[in-house]
Amino acid sequence: MKKALLLFLIVFGIFLLILNVLHSEKSYFNRFKLSELNSGRRLDSQSDENMNTSGLIDGMDRFEWYSMKLNNSLKTADKVSTLYAYEFEHEITITITSWNFIGYRVFCRYIDENDIEIEEPFESFTYPEYIVACKKRKGTRKIGLSVEKNGDFQPLPILNRMLKKPTYELSMCIATLYGDEPKWLMFIEMIEHYKLQGVQHFYLHIHNASNYDLKVINEYVRTGELEVHYLLERDRRADNHWHMVNIADCLIWSRGESKWTIFADLDERILMTKYPGTILDYVRDIDDEEVGSLQFRQQWVLKTELMPEKYKGRDQLTEWMPTHRWHTSTGIGPTGHTAKCIVDTSKVFKMFIHYVVEFFPPPDGNFVEVDIAPEEGLVRHYRDQSLGNWGEKWLKEILKFGSLRTTDYPSQYLTNLTENVYRRAHYVYGNRFD
C-alpha cells in the first residue's frame, strides 16, 4: 500500500511539473508576441480609467484640480475654433483660437483609426485661456471639440508629447507675426542671433506675413530649424491680441519637447552680459529643480525707421541690420516691467506675455521665477517708435528709467552674426532670376 501511494505521488508530481513547463512556454510566447507587436506600431491612447492613477496634481484628480482652478459655472458657446492637439502621459491637450472664451463648456470627441467616434463625448471646459484638457481614451487617433454633446466638430491629428526626455535643451517661441512692416531682415537676424546663443529649435505663429517674408520663413522650415502654426481669424480682434494665442499654444507645443523655452518678440534680442557664455551655457548651469522661469529685464534700443522691403546685397545688410543701425538706448527697466522669460514649460500651468502667472504644484517645495540681474543678462529690444504710436504713448514713461545713452550689440558675436545673416539672405533672395 505504501509503495502504491509513493508511486502515485511521484507520477502526480511529474504531471504537475510538465504542466508548469507548458504554461511557462505559453507565457513566454505571449510576452514575445506582445513585445513584437508594440515595437512595430504607435501605441494607442490609454483608457480613462488608467490615465488618472499616476497623473494626480497636488494629490487630486487632475481634472478636478482644473475645475477647482476655474471655480465658476460653465458658460455655453455657439462655436469653438480649434488649433492643435497634443498627447501627454495623462491627458490630451487641445489649444483653441476662440477669443474671450474662458470657462466655456466644450465636449472632447474621440476618433479611432477607422474614423469612428469612440464612446460618449467627454465634457470639459476652456481654462486657462485658449486651452482645453481632455481625458485619454484607448484607441484614439484623432480628437476634436464641439460646443454641444452631439454637435459638429473637426477632428485633429494628435502631436506626440509622451517623450522620455526633451528633444531640445533650448528652444524659442517667437511672438505672432502680423502687420505690414517688412519682416524678412528682422526675422533672419533674430533667428541667427539666437542660434549663436545656443537655441536649437524655433516655434512660430503667423497671422499675417507677405509672400516675400514667407520665402525665408519657409527656408528655415525646410532646414528643420523652424515649425509654423498659422492662425485663422474666426472672431474679431485687434492684431496684438494674437499674442496670447501664441503664448498659450506654444506653452503646450514646447512642453516636453524642450527643456527650456524662450518667449520673445521678433525685435527682441536676449543675451548674457557679464556672464561668460551663451544663454544655453547659462541654463545648463542651473541645477536647482525649483527654478521654473528666468525673467530678463528690458533695455529699449530706439528704432526710428521701417525695415527695407527687399534684399539688395551685403552692403545693404550691414547698413540695415538692427544690431548695426540703431544704438540709442534707454535705461534698463525695473524688475518685471515688460520683462521676457525663459521657462521650463513642464512646470508652468498658466503664463502671460511677461511672466509666469501660475506654476503646477511640485511634490515638494515651490517652483519659482528668478529675476536675472542686468549684470548677468538682459533684453535688447529694438522697438520701433512709430508702429502703434509707441514712442508717443510710452517713451516718456520709459525715460524715467534713465537718460538715453549709446549701447552696442556685443562685439564678440557681431562678426559671426553679420556673416550668417548675409549667407541666409543671399541664399534665399540673391538669385537675380527669381
Automatic annotation (TrEMBL):
Keywords: Glycosyltransferase, Membrane, Transferase, Transmembrane, Transmembrane helix. Pfam families: Glyco_transf_92. GO terms for cellular component: cytoplasm; membrane. GO terms for molecular function: glycosyltransferase activity. It comes from the Eukaryota. Its main location: membrane. It is an enzyme of class 2 (transferase). It is found in: Membrane. Its EC number is 2.4.1.-. PANTHER family: GLYCOSYLTRANSFERASE FAMILY 92 PROTEIN. This is Glycosyltransferase family 92 protein.
